[in-house]
Design brief:
single chain; 220 residues; mainly alpha; TIM Barrel; 3-stranded parallel beta sheet; two-stranded antiparallel sheet; 11 helices; 53% helix
């Protein structure tokens, strides 16, 4: 539903005036896009308009989108020092525009129409942070994972904590269902023994960080 919304005339008209990041950074516009599928199609839920990589901005990694090329990370992570220097992220202060979009959308939605929020899974975020953008092979990610496991686990631990706090903040703002967007598609290319330790456990840690705070707002 969220992807289909991008082909709607209302959304395309906005994109003629604003970049994706402009829409994400402006709560009124993000809420407007969130509501568009509900108003036009009468769907039974609304999905927050945001991007899973928005936390990279307060992390200082640099985020931009090139037309037809997807996301670009200006300062990819490649060594232990890069991970150690990542600052703690306070979603209320650093991602307040997303939370305000949640509040505006929730206030405008009809009663009985739930609002769905989300965050990227730690493995997915880590792969973007290491690769510097999208990847089909995840070569840099797998290199760091196997050759510098301590650095890899430190990075996933930081991202899992961030995801947990971010999901909890969305729930406090008014989201009623949350999703952790699945691990990157390259995960099946990892050695099978590495998959649970490298991705699943950290995703569960991120979800647990949310669930301990908001048991009435489930995470799928």
């Amino acid at each position: 539903m969220r992807q289909a919304g991008r082909y709607m005339p209302e959304y395309r008209k906005l994109r003629e005036q604003y970049s994706i990041l402009d829409l994400c950074h402006t709560p009124e516009l993000a809420a407007q896009v969130t509501l568009q599928p509900v108003e036009r199609l009468g769907v039974d839920a609304a999905i927050l308009f945001a991007d899973i990589l928005l936390p990279f901005e307060p992390l200082g990694l640099g985020l931009s989108f090139a037309a037809g090329e997807g996301p670009h990370i200006a300062k990819p992570v490649s060594r232990q020092a890069d991970v150690e220097q990542l600052p703690a992220v306070d979603p209320e202060a650093d991602l307040g525009h997303v939370l305000e979009a949640v509040r505006l959308a929730r206030a405008a939605l009809p009663a009985g129409i739930p609002l769905i929020g989300f965050a990227g899974a730690p493995f997915t975020l880590a792969s973007y942070a290491i690769e510097g953008g999208s990847s089909r092979t995840f070569t840099r990610t797998k290199t760091l994972m196997y050759q510098a496991p301590d650095t890899w686990h430190l990075l996933l631990g930081k991202l899992a904590d961030l995801v947990g706090h971010y999901l909890a903040a969305q729930a406090r703002a008014g989201v009623e269902q949350l999703g952790g967007l699945p691990v990157a598609a390259g995960l099946p290319r990892l050695r099978p023994a590495a998959q649970p330790a490298c991705a699943g456990a950290r995703s569960r840690r991120g979800r647990s960080g949310h669930s301990l705070r908001h048991r009435d707002c489930p995470v799928s």
